[in-house]
Queue: 3 jobs
Job 1
Amino acid sequence: MEEIQFNHRTAVQVRFNDVDGLGHVNNTTIQEYFDLGRMYYLNEVFGDTVFKGDETVIVVNINTDFFSPVYLKDDLEVETAIVAIGTKSLKMVQQVVCKQTKSVKASCKSVMVGFNKRTEESLELLPEWRDAISQWEKRSY
Amino acid sequence: MEEIQFNHRTAVQVRFNDVDGLGHVNNTTIQEYFDLGRMYYLNEVFGDTVFKGDETVIVVNINTDFFSPVYLKDDLEVETAIVAIGTKSLKMVQQVVCKQTKSVKASCKSVMVGFNKRTEESLELLPEWRDAISQWEKRSY
Amino acid sequence: MEEIQFNHRTAVQVRFNDVDGLGHVNNTTIQEYFDLGRMYYLNEVFGDTVFKGDETVIVVNINTDFFSPVYLKDDLEVETAIVAIGTKSLKMVQQVVCKQTKSVKASCKSVMVGFNKRTEESLELLPEWRDAISQWEKRSY
Amino acid sequence: MEEIQFNHRTAVQVRFNDVDGLGHVNNTTIQEYFDLGRMYYLNEVFGDTVFKGDETVIVVNINTDFFSPVYLKDDLEVETAIVAIGTKSLKMVQQVVCKQTKSVKASCKSVMVGFNKRTEESLELLPEWRDAISQWEKRSY
């Protein structure tokens, strides 16, 4: 993956039933961790506006690499950055990092698009979203 | 538990990540199986009316006994019956049964009350619900 | 419920997919929160010994009251106490509390028994477990 | 996606709590459905040998497109095929299809590698796995 500056981190609370029969946190649960980081990121950058009105963003593609097993006792955080913004979509990159070992356990690239919850139709990204992200990430896209 | 006639059965599709780090289906997932049986039961008895309008029933108490571990390969079904109906609440009894061994893995008594989804207030049980249940269970309450 | 002194609290990290189609945290997920509090409690009281060897405790009964809906934005913690210890079993009482409103959203009484993970047989409670709990709870049983 | 012949289908049992606060089956749950199809596929092709010994396959990459929302009442199946086999890894392609509308709700490409559960090390794909897959898919790789 290209060198990315992560400005947002979310600590993850691991639950007992996150672990599957192989003794590892299940891959689908790792995806829940990425969603958790995404939710905190969007809440922080957009200040609640994304989840309150009809206009929101939804995920249309995820591409996740699982590098090494995650265990119940691991102290984890999700790092999140938005790396590109187009007219209708934006690209997010995330990592699940074990704080004890500094190792990256899994990484996820995702594509999100604007979405109207009421009409269930896609939507161009709002200019204020672009501004909020630029300001948060301290870069222009 | 008193002798109960179960007239409703739902086969359960076990998922890989239902199993936890002890190698058993996690107790909270067993509760999902009871919910699954409950949903199928209510859909069948009420013919979709419960989940479409504002008036529905919600669970206010569950009391579950876990008798023996459930494994990924177990062939399971949930047996469900409504055993009592009052003015505002009804009592459901359920069992998770392993079909290969005929053993009862877990049993759950639950109490449900009428609930209006829009106002988020409780609600007396509708007479047509009582009738539908009596007809399904072939008994009067 | 009788007046209980809770000496243990665990903050809960709510996940986006904890919420179900009714817009509330699903009841089975509330049960995951109780499990979370239980795990932190046992880890703290027993200092890792419970989950490392073959001898552990497992839940054989839960009895949960759901008092009011839990939402994504609620700031939650689980309060946990052990209220009785017998030869083979112990009784735990827990509450999910919303910190913003101080309201008790749900409460759970559970019964746990000693269990050997390797032989999958039940087990008398170890004297050192009783001592550790008495010390933590600052009471004798 | 290239034209793929799917020879394996798994019906999906949707659970009430699969649906999230947006009223759709949550994306991480869609990933559970792909895992479900994967488990049934591997069990059928390898006849239980994959999950019983120390030698198994694990997922190292998933790439999932979410095309349209999935609802509680949708009648779903997962279609699964293995499209390529190398020395150490294989490629699987899957689709979640709504049987009522024949529409593809989501598709997932995944990469799996051989893995020894005991040593937690990677492993070359066993020749008998390759044979079993070729036979099942009625093609050579």
Job 2
Amino acid sequence: MGTVPLLSDEEAAPEARAVFDDIRAKRQTDTVNNFWRALAHDPAQLASVWERVQQVMAPGALDPLTKELIYVAVSTVNGCSYCVHSHTAAARAKGLTPEMHGELLAVIAMAMQTNALVTALGVEADEHFKA
Amino acid sequence: MGTVPLLSDEEAAPEARAVFDDIRAKRQTDTVNNFWRALAHDPAQLASVWERVQQVMAPGALDPLTKELIYVAVSTVNGCSYCVHSHTAAARAKGLTPEMHGELLAVIAMAMQTNALVTALGVEADEHFKA
Amino acid sequence: MGTVPLLSDEEAAPEARAVFDDIRAKRQTDTVNNFWRALAHDPAQLASVWERVQQVMAPGALDPLTKELIYVAVSTVNGCSYCVHSHTAAARAKGLTPEMHGELLAVIAMAMQTNALVTALGVEADEHFKA
Amino acid sequence: MGTVPLLSDEEAAPEARAVFDDIRAKRQTDTVNNFWRALAHDPAQLASVWERVQQVMAPGALDPLTKELIYVAVSTVNGCSYCVHSHTAAARAKGLTPEMHGELLAVIAMAMQTNALVTALGVEADEHFKA
Amino acid sequence: MGTVPLLSDEEAAPEARAVFDDIRAKRQTDTVNNFWRALAHDPAQLASVWERVQQVMAPGALDPLTKELIYVAVSTVNGCSYCVHSHTAAARAKGLTPEMHGELLAVIAMAMQTNALVTALGVEADEHFKA
Amino acid sequence: MGTVPLLSDEEAAPEARAVFDDIRAKRQTDTVNNFWRALAHDPAQLASVWERVQQVMAPGALDPLTKELIYVAVSTVNGCSYCVHSHTAAARAKGLTPEMHGELLAVIAMAMQTNALVTALGVEADEHFKA
């Protein structure tokens, strides 16, 4: 239920179309996901997000698969099912096995539990935290 | 601002005290965090959470450090500062470097952004997602 | 996937039907959105929400368009896509241009980022905040 | 309860110190908030966030005060009290009156209500939304 | 870290002071919580919230204690520790026992888990839900 | 939009199939909801969640209907519409009347409001809370 129409290649402004083409080149696919086509109404924002995503998700001290796991976790808590879906797919493309996926879900579920217990119990910071 | 008092070793019921001692043994520390001392009012819940945490956070298809990163991510989105603090400390004990920490934060921040953009744009699932 | 059926004009209790008619009159439309038709199972709550919405969203120190932008922002963070959609439409009816919409999204995205960074870093209140 | 120490001017790396000085110059104040001092552990991220904040919050189709109101709304829903405080202060510096502040809070509260009612009722998208 | 000062009885406008006095009378206590003193900057909002709270939390098809349990649950998920604290206290005044409190926390924790699992798994509505 | 396929009885591993059969027996229905069929990819997690749900939701100091109300409240705030739907149905099976449902929604909505007001006002803990 879009609040904006998804822009086709032809409807996108040149600056946005350039980003679509870069996505195709970098991801080695002809597909440009709906997210980018919706964001294309603001070509400057589209370009900024695309650039930042490449920087942030590149191999670094953390490997790309680990970064996708974190992305899925955040998207799950925020309830963004589109994002959960697209980043789970990305994680699979980067090596996520069913066994890893099960463990990811178990950790997310565990954290959701203890986050709520801490808040409901009003647990105060341990002295050694403040050091 | 606890909704329950933190139980000392002496105040805890025997079943809860046994969990405290197991935490000390398994974590090789004399410290039992405030979280466990608050949860100790319900010894069955305390035992269940402690057992499950050990299972979920053990080395598996995902390594323990990766699991802590996911835990910090979920805790951040849920706004649980106690949990963020304790799991960041745990991550450091399992090998988190400042460089990794910066990348973790950058991924969390990126995901928060795109999760919101997807929701605000009302992006619908791509056809290829449904396959 | 409603948890209650949407009530038609005929199915709604008289008190609820009166609210439907007032919505039509005030909004100068024949449409009564699904939200109101779902809420109509509790005519007192329907009447209370409708009255309060009119008070809160009326022109005041903040203009109606600004109020809709705030509404979209809250709805985005809460992940309510129905609400995002209906309030984005309302914002457009009150003067939202595509340029404004892009800026609204950019601010929401920025805030999501820095909110998470603050929590993950455990930033403590500055002294000058407490004054 | 920081997960990282706040960096003083002397402790910050040159790239980070340069951002501190730019904040001072642009905001015409000697104060560099704790947020920036915590983020300074990752000078590249600090620079990126500072640059983006200036772009996003600048006068545009939406004025700076309106942008701060949106920022406060997002921060409220995310439960980031540090952010609520600092952006409410920024809003006041940009012209927020007590009357406007009351209206902002009333809209946020209203949206929180209806967001939850929509979700609890499972309200489905109106046909006219899909057009 | 208030964004507004807490108003004393003397500082509050007459309309707000009247609400303070009504709170004292209805709750049979001399204490007026900080929440009301902060809200008092907007006497109309204060009056509206106080009136609605009394209606919503009164005995009805659900008893007052059950209503406080729901209030604590919502406040926990929203991470509002002030609210968790004040409504847990209210629940205790209405009959909450330690055993009930433990069960409340266990249900909240369970729901947090399964909510996240559903989102991460992208579980689609069962056919029989749509009936 | 599942991130995993829903497993039929035949596709599920024996340990998962045993859980399906136990669900049928305990709930006296032939239906195994999609949630369990998605979770079945991790038979150990499926078994653990099923076991815990039965313990947590059993009659205790709180009755089963009250527990479902709490579950619906948490699911609403987390925006999990699947969970809201399935637990509202469970609540109805345990005695939820339309009148109770309306009151549940009114309490959730009230709490969402005041949670946000507290955060936006930065209300600090009352002295008597700390006692």
Job 3
Amino acid sequence: MSSRATFAEISPSEFFYRNRDLAGFTNPARALYMAVRELAENSMDAAELAGTPPDVYVRIIPEGDNPDLPDPKPYRLTVIDNGPGVAPQHVPSAFGKVFYGSKYVLRQSRGMFGLGGTMAILYGQITTNKPVTVTTSPDGKRKYSFQMIIDIGENRPSVLKRFASDADGTTGTRVDLTLEGDYLRSSQKIADYFKQTALVASYANLTFVDPTGQVTFYERATTSMPAAPKETLPHPYGIDVEAFKRIVKSSEEHDMKSFMVTHFHRVGEKIATKFLEFAGVSPRLPPKRLNNVQIVSIVDALQRFPDFLQPDAAVLSPVGEEILLAGVNKELQPEFATVVTRPPSSYSGFPFLVEVAVAYGGKVLQPGMRLFRFANRIPLLYDESSDVSFEVLTEGVDWRRYHVPPEAPVGVITHICSTRIPYKTVGKEYIADRPEIEREIKNASREALRRLGIFLSRKGNMEAVQRKINIYGKYLPLIARFSKELAGEKKLPPYRKLIGEGDTVTEASPGGEQEGGGVLTGEDGPDQGREQEAAEIEQKKIDEFGGS
Amino acid sequence: MSSRATFAEISPSEFFYRNRDLAGFTNPARALYMAVRELAENSMDAAELAGTPPDVYVRIIPEGDNPDLPDPKPYRLTVIDNGPGVAPQHVPSAFGKVFYGSKYVLRQSRGMFGLGGTMAILYGQITTNKPVTVTTSPDGKRKYSFQMIIDIGENRPSVLKRFASDADGTTGTRVDLTLEGDYLRSSQKIADYFKQTALVASYANLTFVDPTGQVTFYERATTSMPAAPKETLPHPYGIDVEAFKRIVKSSEEHDMKSFMVTHFHRVGEKIATKFLEFAGVSPRLPPKRLNNVQIVSIVDALQRFPDFLQPDAAVLSPVGEEILLAGVNKELQPEFATVVTRPPSSYSGFPFLVEVAVAYGGKVLQPGMRLFRFANRIPLLYDESSDVSFEVLTEGVDWRRYHVPPEAPVGVITHICSTRIPYKTVGKEYIADRPEIEREIKNASREALRRLGIFLSRKGNMEAVQRKINIYGKYLPLIARFSKELAGEKKLPPYRKLIGEGDTVTEASPGGEQEGGGVLTGEDGPDQGREQEAAEIEQKKIDEFGGS
């Protein structure tokens, strides 16, 4: 009965091979979706980093002799981009080794774990036993192809064939892999994925060819790219002892002052001097001489020092109010929309920034809240209810305070951009509830909802005014006529202006239902300008009537 | 503007250090909860594997001079178990190296990734910079202590101090670590965790000492342990090419027949012979001579062969109907409860088994469904709405079909046990929607809801009968009296039996409201026996009255 544990070590590939659910490769439907998005995101990142407006082509075709087999079945997935390519010596490891990649720097990018492309290849290999082919041209002159499989136990690529040939003058990378997929059950998510990606990356060309051969093309709306995200130094707030020790280890500075200036985000000479005084450390001390106790005390001071600057928004690349509003108006066609962009903030030394758009009414939105989540410009389509945005919007914000009823047709778009998004899963399905991020989403949402509340309350007021005018419209002609008769006048008093009609005076039939005043109707929905105008007119009317 | 990606490799420790949200160490509240559960689960696994009823002690005390500092603040976490201890040569790697552990075998255990204990230690180290101390005695004679930190960049333990001393005769392991925690915000989850763990592990002693010194003790209700889970061979269904190749590589058999019998779960000589014929492979072929094409064809045949036996339930250790029902009745005190245990099944070669309990009514359950999720006897307390059980119970099952209204006070307990739970996160928050598991939960839930539906419909019938009897009770005495008077009899006819009263014949006051018949009332709630009895009586009554 008694048994003793046996210990063993496994490789990172092995870990994710055994636990592919962790990376989102749960079933053939989800795996196909994940493979598409991971490779497409790598392609978009590569092009953007090189300052090239992305042009990404994705095709899924049934593999094998019988394309009419029912799902799940083997599919061939091809992803081609116009990025800068990959230097050939890096190709095998970049695509065939877990924990080897280009994402392990502090820079806003879609990819975060340097894992997705390799996971897609690994999944294809274990479900179809076919090798992957990666072709890349870093200079547009020559292109290099690698046919390879992953040696999972050893976590290393095993190249079966490699060959070079002339390129057509353009740089870029192409991946061809075969994997077991279920397109029937993933087609909707894949379609949503491209649609929502196009919404926030309107400077990209996206082409998707589905297994039936149908082509969906999202043409870029602009060639003006947002500034490419920059690699950044860690922000001093939230640096832990481990991180500090590593920086010391890799540093070459001879004194603490230049050490601080060189290795931390937005620390200049002035702030460095002030901080070192605060921490009780000599600015001339060589960093390598710091002992353990001093390091702990400095790290503690880093958290407490009040005068560090907030992270620079320049390292982040938000969607921007204009593009976001344009996307929202195009996709949701709301009656009202507003965007709130929060100032940059940080958590654990990583700068981040939250943008929230709230849309109301129109023909697309249905009663109840609909949430669209984005992180570093990628749409998050699974596991909504575990996401920090969902949590904030369902529990952290009191909608009634803003007079937005729960059944109102509201769309909320949240976008978090950061040099490091705290995803809860390797599959990038949802974002952890880091308190700093929670706070920013809350603040942005509240402000956006406050604006919506004002809109709704004005809309409500306008409707009340409308009703009032309808009543005036009904009784004023009578009063006017009676007054005229009592006074023995021949002309009616000029009342029509008051109910928004022209000043041509003709006698109205007393019982007739009057249409409301011109400026206040209009089926195409008020915008804020017209709304304000209407509100002023309303006030004028009320003044004229001496209140009600 | 143009920039090129730079490639780098990172260690597994580094990966989880950078991405600790993946393992559930998101914020000081969640991290404290995670550290408690990961260490407690390792302790329970160790004791159970050795066939010892677990005795686990967990204590959290504020660290430092000022215990009244507000949260978050440093806490010292101590976990002590009565397991078999760890051989001293394994201690540093087992606690200080990611992807090194004892969980990388096919055996049902709480731990799954061999990562949780090391993550707790890593989190403690990076938030407080204090080393962990692990003390263990594998023989009860000597105990060995290791004070160590993790070298994250290299993914290896760095032992600062080690010392040995005499033990007190008992085996076991003790972990002492310091970590930044928020007890205020995690106390409820930690309490729930112990409470729900006690519910399914009633053979364990659990002691929890909270930071104020308050002790909660869950005493074991039984010393009879469920059979210790056994390590098992992979089931042939769902073996992929990668897995098959590895087995071939590690095999020593000289022919395919003994290869099949030796390496696969529930494959005897008869089935092996039949399968090899089915796959068109000679039973005498040496496995090492298989070429790639043959391997792919055999793996394909493994999925299609209809005669493999289902996985043996003996390798799984479910809670069991009796213990589960006892737990449900104790915790939820329902009016009705039922347990459905599905036969063992498998996904991707891993056996699993689903148990579902449904409870209805009583004083604890509130209107609406409340879901309690367990996997390998651990409660899952976070991210409910992303879990396969939640998905099935909210979307996969049509409650109306079972005549269970959505607002009914229902508790559903799902327990999945498997040699490998397909968690979606390293933090073991929720389970992926593998189709096979989804199907089993669906089937179990439907059967349990069907039973609840029958109960409710009987209860409904009983209530209808009750109402009928109330009417009979009101009018029968009158009819009886009028009949008596019309017939000129002196005695009333014996009608009282019909309305469930004793047969002592006394005249009833005509207008008096009658209490319902004896067998059908009873405030303590009907059980199934009484319910059936009541149903029979009901039928008898209806027959006697000639229907209604």
